[in-house]
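Changelog note: in this version the structure field was regenerated for every chain. One regenerated record is shown below for reference.
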Amino acid sequence: MAEPDFSGIAVLLLAAGRGERFGGPKLGADLGGRPLAFHAAAMLNGLPFAHRLAVVREDTPDLAARGWTTLPLDPPHAPQSRSLAIGVAAARAAGARGVLIALADMPLVPAAHVAALVGAFDGDRIASSAEGQRMPPALFGARHFGALEALSGDRGAGALLVDAPCLPLPPGAELDVDRPEDLARAAGLL
């Protein structure tokens, strides 16, 4: 695997979920003494991305104070596809050659995995995987920006990853905190 080249790559942290299955705003929920959203943000801050972009809602913990360019989700209750469109448009405007899409509610993804994704990136796309399923974090080259911006509904970019190469996540790192029991599981895995 090649040495990771972060030049020109933006990281897009999706941090504007409504938390409906959680029962309300989840990104501010305590996990190991800090808000859930800060775990993914801190891990990504440790890597030399060219741009750090986060799509947020008014109840998202303050990522701007942690070095992120925050982009408000507009309208505030728009689906995930709108978060992607806003973030990818900002990456395009910044002249990024690629965008790594990460979720603020996936607190256990290790930096080494993200660096391996960047190292294996050939300019097209690459996804993470667990149990045979492709998922974020996923890295897309600029040629996919238009397709990412055109997505609709409350779905992510999974349809664009169907035939993409992938790197397996370490066991447990695929945990996406959707419900309170997921938060408890994450706390046990920290």
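Spot check on this record: The two ends are 28 Å apart (CA to CA). The beta strands are 9-15, 30-31, 34-35, 51-56, 69-72, 98-103, 125-130, 133-141, 166-168.
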